[in-house]
Amino acid sequence: MVTNRDHDDLAVSLPESLTINVDLPATVHDVPDDEVAVSIDEVAVDPGFVDAAVPTTTSVTLVTPQAEPLPEPEPAIELHGDDHGYSRRDRLRGEVSSSPEPAAMLTADRLLDERKTRRTPPEGRWPQFVYAISFHLVNLGDSRSVRERKAVEARIAKQFEGGTRFVPVLTRKGGVGKTTITTLLGMALASTREDRIIAIDANPDRGTLAERVTKQTRATVRDVVTRAASISGFTDFTTLVSRDETRLDILASDTDPMLSEAFDENDYNVVADLTARFYSIVLTDCGTGIVHSVMRATLQRADSVVIVSGGSVDEARLASETLTWLEANGYGDLVRNAVVALNTATQGTNLVKIEEIEAHFQSRVREVVRIPYDPQLAAGSVVSYKDLRPLTKNAARELAALVVEGLPARRTN
C-alpha cells in the first residue's frame, strides 16, 4: 500500500526531464500518386510571423456580366400607295390612290382572285369525270398515260444555248420511209418545243418531203440560194417555206430533174447558213447518194444523225453499212451518238425477227426506236399529226426526245 509519503518520495527521486526512445515499425502505407498530386506541402506555419509586404486580407470582387439590352424594335412602317410603296393595307378594295401608283403595285396578290384561281384541270377520262362532278373541288391529277406523255415532252423541250443544231436523217437504202421519219420527227419537235424547227429536203434526186404537208409556196432550195442576198429577216424567209399545223417549216427540194444535180455542197451551205439565223433545230432529209457532195456538207455540220432502217433483211443490212461508212470516214462520234429509227411498216417486217435487228443496232448506236405501222403514213400523202394513232405519236415523241438528248445543250461556236 502506497501512502502519501511514499508518493512524495517518488516524485522527488524522478529527474526533471525524461526521454524515451521508441522504435516505430517501417512505413506500411505509401501515398498513391493521385493523392500526392493534390497534397499540400508540409510547411510549418508560424502564426506570429506576418510579412508586411503581403496583405493579410485579399478582397475579390466578382463582376457578373450584364446582357446588353436588346434594341427596341423599330415600329413597322405601313407603305401605302400614296407613299409609292407596294402595299394596300388600310385601303379599301378598288379605292383610288391620291397619287399615281408605280407599276410595282400591280402584283399578283393584289390582282388575282383566289376564288377564281384553281389548279390546272386534269387530263384523262376518270380524273376529268371526278373533277366535273365535284364542281372542280376534287382534282385527282393527270392519268398515268398523261403523266408519261408530259415526261417525254419535258425531255423534248430541252433548252439550247449558242447556235443551231443540225440533225441529218439518212440511209443508203431508198423506200424505207426516210422522208416519213423526217416528217414525224419534225412534227413531234415543233408541236412540243417553243422555238423554230425546219426540215430541209436536200435530196438531189427530187425529194418528196414538201408533199407531206399542205403546200403554201412553190419555192424550193434553189430559190433560197438565188435570193439569199435579199433575205434580211425571218419574214422574208417564211415566204419560201410551207408551215404545218404543228408549226414545222418545210423547205422543198428542186422539182426540175434537170436542176437536181445542180444543188451541191456550196448551195447547201448557203441554205444552212440562212436557216441557222432563224431556227434552233434544222433537220435535213438526205438522199440515198451518201457520197454526194451535199452529204459531206451535211455531215460536217451534224450534231447527231438519225439512221432509218426498214424491217427486212436487206434494209437492215444497208442501214448497218451506212454506219460502217460513217465510221470509216471519220464520223465515229456521230455513229456512237446516233439514233436508229426502225420503220416496221415496210414489206417483209412480219417475216423477220425485229428484236434481232434491234439488238444489232443497239450494239452500235445510242438508241433504237421502233416506228409502228400507221395507215395515214402508208398513204404517202399529207400527214395530219393530230390524226395519227396514239401509238404512232408516242413513238414520234420518243424519237424526238432521244434526238434532243443527244444534242449539246451549250455551244461556244
TrEMBL record:
Q: Which GO terms describe its biological process?
A: negative regulation of cell division
Bias-annotated ranges (Basic and acidic residues): 77-94
The UniProt annotation puts the region (Disordered) at 66-102
Q: Where are the transmembrane segments?
A: none
Which organism is the protein's source?
Galbitalea soli
Q: Under what name is this protein listed? A: MinD/ParA family protein
Which intervals hold domain CobQ/CobB/MinD/ParA nucleotide binding?
Answer: 171-312
Q: Which GO terms describe its cellular component?
A: cytoplasmic side of plasma membrane; cytosol
Question: Which spans of this chain does the record mark as coiled coil?
Answer: none
